[in-house]
Design brief:
The complex is a heterodimer of chains A (401) and B (309).
Chain A: E1 5-11, E2 15-16, H1 28-43, E3 50-56, H2 68-75, E4 83-87, H3 93-107, E5 112-120, H4 137-140, H5 148-159, H6 163-182, E6 193-194, E7 200-202, H7 214-218, H8 225-239, E8 259-268, H9 270-276, E9 282-291, H10 300-312, E10 321-324, H11 329-339, H12 352-355, H13 359-376, E11 381-388, E12 392-400
Parallel strand pairs in A: 3-4, 3-5, 10-11
Antiparallel strand pairs in A: 1-8, 1-9, 2-8, 5-8, 6-7, 9-12, 11-12
Chain B: E1 4-8, E2 13-18, H1 30-45, E3 51-56, E4 61-63, H2 68-80, H3 84-94, H4 96-105, E5 111-115, E6 118-120, H5 122-128, E7 132-136, E8 142-144, H6 158-166, H7 168-177, E9 180-181, H8 183-189, E10 194-196, H9 201-211, H10 234-248, H11 257-267, H12 272-287, H13 290-305
Parallel strand pairs in B: 2-3, 3-5, 4-6, 5-7, 6-8, 7-10
Antiparallel strand pairs in B: 1-2, 8-9
Classes of the chains: A alpha+beta (401), B alpha/beta (309).
């Protein structure tokens, strides 16, 4: 089977996902089109060689609805021959888009695919897409649905992470992200977002709070106490009778930030790269997705990592860098605990707690971050993964070329 | 009709008296269900009738709901259904009462319920199918949909009509807890439209018929919208979702809680006739569970052993 290579990766900076965020006045379509345009321009790519554009988008309604990938490709000025598809695997949508791109290349369907994602959380809010999960009793009642914030607090409770543990992780995420920005580690990927007049409106991750310390986080109230009291704590305890009372430890400061952004990753075959005169930056060794217990919802990374490494005949010691989306601090702490991973090799440049998690875009962003970091730190293998709604997990292993 | 007496006055108003022979209390027996079909056809087709008033001939009350003795046998038959044809036949039986109420609701002629004493379960459902509901306020009124207390659920429009009167969130406790509905609450939710003294009830009912312009339930009026909106609103995400969770998290959730919630959720998104069909299917589904048979049997055996009075 054909090997899929990563030729390049770009991302927009992440704007605060609020009406006063820098990207609130920029449409999701514009964010996506700017990312698609940038990856074409800097590789001087003939878009006639691109056989598909796959964009993750978790709230594919309103302005993000109706297959934003195809529309963004056309708006970006891609040849009309380039098809587009929007995909939704909740928080791993962007990585799933890249994994699907790799599969299309491997199967010979595509020479190049541009994959990534887009999410304007300030313009298309969380839950805008509705869905059965939260309110259809056929799922919510029979299968014990709880929101992910409850799941994160359940992880902390069951696996013994205190408020201090999760806040400590968040402080470290902020420190690492600040250092990475200071050292220009994201410089190669970042494509500043331009406004309607063509003027740069955002060139840095706006959500970061480098001054964060244990004291400032300690002042924040846990976010899911009220939601738990409304019924979800009882549901969680019914599902996990041995858990005991839920220790609500998560809040806005130790969970991923709500932000706007887009990502684009150029994935293609060796032959396509040669024809386009491009040098591959990384090789995709393997991809995987799993399902795990849906009520706790966010423990999938452990299982998807095991599944993928097993299939590749690798162990965790073969992996130089781990990247796990920082949905909630306890998700990462549980991953470290379950797989006994050296924290120094995990999320080395911080993550979504500091910089934000633009749902559909994130997978492409952190994949690009690892491509950059393998080169910068002269490492070989990186594993990228995310916890995913309804108990899933999605992962990708790449090797530097 | 074995269980209903019908008198048409000079104004064309039919006074229909629900009075099961040889029983101290009206219930929804098979025979009553059959009569309701005849009654609906009579109201619809008899040119002399301009409107009808449904009242009870029993001092004990309007109607106490399902005939549990008969239902116990129904349950066994329905639970045994295995083939598609058998399931269809079971659904036809299980939805019979619901469809007859719908017939009464859609004759095109106004129908008023005069409710005295006990109007529980199927009794209240029968009243809810009437266009106007007058309660006799003599301290003996007992309203409610107590099916859930027996591990069952309302199956004759109770979930759908209450939902369309009270909205998604207010409906849930009445259906899930099955507790009594006080008169003041019933008036606020329009389960009953007015309360009067016994002596005035029939006059008031006649007056309503003569003065009412049409005979159509609110949910049959074009453009009807569910009060408070359906389950796919931000308000429902904030309230209905946690309400489901709270129920799931109860130490001993009711056997029918899941099916009641499903009926409300699905029924809230479709017109009344579709909602009634959905309710009938979940009703049959609920009654086919082993726990339903056990609960009804248990209730009947407690009742037979209880001292008289």
């Amino acid at each position: 089977m054909t090997v899929a290579y990563i030729y390049d990766a770009v991302r927009t900076p992440r704007g605060k996902g609020r009406p006063d965020g820098a990207l609130h006045e920029i449409t999701a379509l514009s964010l996506a089109a700017q990312a698609l345009g940038a990856i074409r321009d800097r590789n001087d790519l003939d878009t006639g060689m691109i056989d598909d554009v796959i964009l993750g988008c978790v709230m594919p309604v309103g302005e993000q609805g109706s297959d934003i990938a195809r529309i963004a490709a056309l708006v970006a000025g891609y040849e009309q021959s380039v098809s587009g598809v929007a995909v939704n695997r909740f928080c791993a949508s962007g990585l799933e888009a890249c994994n699907m791109a790799a599969a299309k290349v491997a199967l010979g369907e595509a020479r190049f695919v541009v994959a990534g994602g887009v999410e304007s959380m300030s313009r298309v809010p969380l839950a805008a897409d509705g869905g059965a999960m939260m309110v259809d009793p056929v799922f919510a009642f029979d299968r014990y649905y709880a929101p992910q914030g409850i799941g994160a607090d359940m992880i902390a409770t069951i696996h013994g992470f205190s408020r201090e543990d999760v806040d400590g992780y968040a402080v470290e995420s902020q420190r690492r992200a600040a250092q990475a920005w200071k050292e220009g580690r994201f410089a190669r990927s970042i494509v500043p977002v331009k406004d309607q007049a063509g003027i740069v409106i955002l060139d840095h991750d706006e959500h970061m709070r480098p001054q964060t310390d244990m004291q400032s986080l300690g002042a924040l109230k846990p976010a899911f106490v009220k939601m738990g009291a409304a019924g979800y704590d009882a549901l969680a305890q019914a599902r996990y009778p041995d858990m005991g009372p839920i220790n609500h430890v998560h809040h806005g400061g130790n969970a991923s930030g709500i932000v706007d952004g887009a990502s684009a990753v150029l994935i293609g075959s060796k032959e396509a790269g040669e024809a386009a005169g491009l040098k591959p930056r990384a090789r995709i060794l393997g991809t995987a997705s799993i399902g795990s217990e849906p009520t706790i919802m966010l423990t999938g990374p452990e299982f998807v990592t095991r599944k993928l490494l097993d299939r590749l005949g690798m162990t965790k010691d073969d992996v130089d860098l781990f990247e796990l989306n920082e949905a909630f601090a306890a998700v990462v702490l549980r991953y470290v605990q379950a797989l006994d991973i050296d924290p120094a090799r995990l999320n080395v440049n911080g993550g979504a707690i500091a910089m934000g998690h633009p749902l559909g875009a994130t997978g492409g962003m952190i994949l690009g971050t690892m491509v950059d970091e393998l080169e910068r730190s002269d490492k070989e293998i990186a594993l990228i993964n995310l916890c995913v709604g309804a108990g899933m997990g999605t992962a990708t292993v790449i090797a530097r070329v | 009709m074995e269980n209903f007496a019908l008198e048409i006055d000079a104004a064309g108003i039919a006074a229909v008296t629900f009075d099961m022979p040889g029983r101290s209390m009206n219930t929804i027996s098979h025979s009553v269900q059959d009569d309701l079909g005849t009654l609906a056809a009579t109201i619809r087709d008899d040119q002399r009738i301009v409107g009808a008033i449904l009242r009870s001939g029993k001092d004990s009350g309007f109607c106490a709901g399902a005939d549990l003795g008969e239902l116990r046998d129904d349950i066994d038959r329905w639970a045994a259904a295995a083939s598609q044809d058998e399931l269809r036949a079971a659904l036809a039986e299980a939805s019979h009462f619901s469809r007859r109420i719908r017939d009464l609701e859609t004759t095109g002629k106004p129908l008023v319920a005069v409710i005295n004493g006990v109007a529980l379960g199927g009794g209240l459902e029968l009243a809810l199918g009437c266009h106007h509901r007058i309660a006799i306020d003599d301290g003996k009124l007992r309203l409610g949909l107590p099916e859930a207390t027996l591990g069952l659920m309302p199956g004759a429009g109770g979930t759908q009509r209450l939902l369309r009167l009270a909205g998604l969130m207010e409906t849930l406790p009445y259906l899930l807890d099955g507790g009594p509905i006080e008169l003041a609450e019933a008036l606020r939710l329009r389960l009953v439209h007015e309360s009067v003294e016994a002596a005035q009830a029939m006059d008031r009912a006649r007056q309503w018929i003569l003065e009412s312009a049409d005979a159509i339930a609110p949910w049959d009026v074009k453009g009807f919208r569910l009060p408070g909106g359906g389950p796919h609103t931000s308000a429902a995400y904030a309230l209905f979702g946690p309400a489901i969770a709270a129920r799931r998290g109860m130490e001993t959730p009711g056997d029918a809680d899941g099916n009641i919630l499903k009926t409300v959720y699905e029924g809230a998104q479709v017109p009344i006739d579709a909602g009634l069909r959905i309710e009938s299917r979940y009703f049959l589904n609920t009654l086919r569970t082993p726990s339903a048979a056990e609960r009804v049997s248990g209730f009947l055996s407690r009742k037979s052993k209880a001292p008289a009075g």
